[in-house]
Predict the structure.
Amino acid sequence: MSDIPHYFLYGEASPSNGQTDLHIASLKESLPKHNWEIHPHRHDNLHQLLVVEQGSVLAQVNDKSREERGPCILSIPPKEVHGFVHQPDVEGYIITIESAFLRNLFSDTEREEFPNLFRSSLSARPQPESRTALTIKHLTPQLLIEYHHAEVGQSSMIGAYLKILFILLQRSLEPVRLATSLQDDRIASHEQFMELLEHHYLEHWTVNQYAETMGISTGRLNRLCKHYSGQKVLEIIHERLLTEAKRQLIYTQLSAQEISYKLGFKDPGYFSRFFSRNMEMTPRKFKQRVREQRQ
């Protein structure tokens, strides 16, 4: 493939109807038409939850693959490359949510309490027959029913179900709470930086350019990133470039030189040194290793 496919829903390149903020489907109904396999792809502005009640699925997210067995929830934020190979006996649901709709369900304070819930790929495995697992098992069919019946307050009801589902996901991860309570504008600033990063990392913006656009000092931006991500701004910028480089090497047939230009590097040699410094191997060696692991 010349580039990583961008899908709207399971294997769909664009919305099939006017509803773009939410889609819910049973795996038993949606997967047979795709021969139980969803090839690696990504969504630009959509968050996905794969709720596996029973059976198993081989999940590939970026450069990692592993088998997941139900009951479990896989949470995939926007722009993360992912693909699934399901066993025919798998049961569960796929929920696709427009990012803005999901973000509006939670206040700034709540998003501060759950800093990684909407930005990182997560896998939660509640204990079978536990209260959390039973609640999820009851909740997802109700969510599907609500989705298919346009009654008064449908959007609010769906939002309430989704919020409960995400909180149960967070509880299953056994999160560590922040030691201090921070002002709402701090998490908003960090989210603003992460959004700017998605728009400008290919332009190789400097730390100063991000800080100036946000109207804060580079020191304050570094402190925000250090608090929420555990990394300095430059480390996050480099990690984003490296993630995209690995995606292109894994999922496309582009050469390292073509990828270097695609990622905004003017000198392919500098791109190779950048990649080797962070991965301790050349782009070519990385691509070869991935190919060998798939055989």
Notes: The chain has two domains: 22-172, 184-294. Residues 10-19, 174-183 have pLDDT under 50 and may be disordered.
